[in-house]
Every structure is written in structure tokens, then in C-alpha cells.
Amino acid sequence: MVKKKLTTIFVSHGAPTLPFEDVPARTFLSDLGSKYGNFEAVLCISAHWETVSPVLNAVEINETIHDFYGFAPELYQVEYHAEGSPELAKHTQNLITDAGISCDLDFTRGLDHGAWIPMLLMYPDRDVPIFQLSIQQGLDPKQHLALGRALEPLTEERVLIVGSGGAVHPLGYASLHPDAFTDDWAIEFNEWLKIALTTGDTESLVSYRDRSPYSERAHPYPDHFMPLLTAMGAAGEGATGKLIHDSWYWGDLGMGAYEFSV
């Protein structure tokens, strides 16, 4: 019997204030969790955990990491103590090392805001075990696509793989605030990205810095692009993306989301 594979997902998590703002991306994420059932746990690849080589957190209960500054005090009081899954973390470590990629476990780290913000919106009852995988400090697109390919067996083992970053994330380049408008260059990059993902053009995606318009503006520091590549890779060779959400937030933050399948 052929096991049915789960799709993999990429979501854009925006700013830490997303759960408190009446914007389309929040509504989308709040509705998204109910669309995926029959899975055992979520593996989240967040843009906000960088390590030299891949690391998985392996804790019984996830602490909430408030890894941001300059926001209202009530945001630092939000807690999302979802269960972890040390067993699945160990199993995933074995899959990654079997693919020839070094991987470690972290027995203390919880969820950073790149993970707990979308999970808070998707699973507010905290009834889904969640474990997290880091991105690598080299921010090499081919490396992150290959890392995703190592995770593919999980899609047949009732693990929902969610990459969390930003379709367009010009932090440090654009002025981002609630009243900002969306620049033409951001729209142009976003349209290029849609085509590359929906046609499964991995060659262009791993070379996006040279092939996409305004890549140096859309991702001046490409940490938020790596989870997208890992989520796509996890869907398997030949995967294509299906656009499931597209909106703008704080001007030039592209909040695109995709499902990946073969």
C-alpha cells in the first residue's frame, strides 16, 4: 500500500504583532489550521533560529521565546507552551544524518516567534505537538533545499512540515509600518516568486539572488527565504507550489503562503 503524503507548507509570519492586528494574513492563518487533519505533530522550520549545522529542539514542553524588542509590554506576556516531541526530533535527526548532513539535538530550546506566532494562530488550543528545526548560518539555498529533501519521509509519517519566514522580507531596507504603501519593486519580486514556485523551478529558486528582480531589496538578509526552500524540498523531487494566500503587511512585507506537493 502506498502511503498518502501530507503536503508541506510555507507561511509568512510577518511582525510579532500579527496576532493582534486585523489584517488578511492573520485571518488566513487563523483559518489554516483546520484545513489540515490526521497528523501527529508539526515540524516548524523558522527563520529565527540559525545554527552552523541543523539542530532540532527535543523538549517535552516548549518554552516561549520572545526574541524581539521595542514592542508593547503585553506582547512579551504571550505564552505558547505547546507540547514538543523528543521522539520525533530524534527520528528526524536520524533522517537528516542518514542523508549525510550533520544534525544535533537541543534539549532546552523552546519556540521562537517565527514558530509560535503562526502556531498560535493555527492551533490556539495548544493541542498539537510542535518541534522546531533551525536554518543554517551560511544561508545557502542549495543546502536548505537538500535539507528539505532529507525530511521527505516525514510527509508519509503524519508530520506536517511548516516553513515559516517571509515571501518578501526587506527588513533593514524598506520602511515598514502599518501605514506604509507597497513598492513596485516588492510586487515585482513577489510575482517572480509566484511563477518560480508554482512551476517548480528549483534551479531559479536556488539562484534567486542572480535570477530574480530586486532580490537584494526583497531579502537583504535572506534568513526568511531559507524555510521556503526547505519546505519545498521536503515535498520531494519535482514538487510544485500552490499559492494559498497572498497579501501585504506593513507596506513591503509579502505574506505569501504556499502548499507543496509532487
From TrEMBL:
Molecular function GO terms recorded? ferrous iron binding; oxidoreductase activity, acting on single donors with incorporation of molecular oxygen, incorporation of two atoms of oxygen; zinc ion binding
User: What single Pfam family name could you report for this chain, choosing any that match?
Assistant: LigB
Q: Which UniProt keywords apply?
A: Dioxygenase, Metal-binding, Oxidoreductase, Zinc
Segments forming domain Extradiol ring-cleavage dioxygenase class III enzyme subunit B: 40-254
Cofactor(s) needed, names only, are: Zn(2+)
- Output the superkingdom of the source species: Archaea
The record's annotation in InterPro entries points to: Extradiol_dOase_DODA, Xdiol_dOase_suB
Q: Does the keyword tRNA processing apply?
A: no
Q: Which family would the database say this protein is a member of?
A: Belongs to the DODA-type extradiol aromatic ring-opening dioxygenase family.
The name on file for this protein is Extradiol ring-cleavage dioxygenase class III protein subunit B
Query: Which species is the source of this protein?
Result: Methanobacterium lacus (strain AL-21)
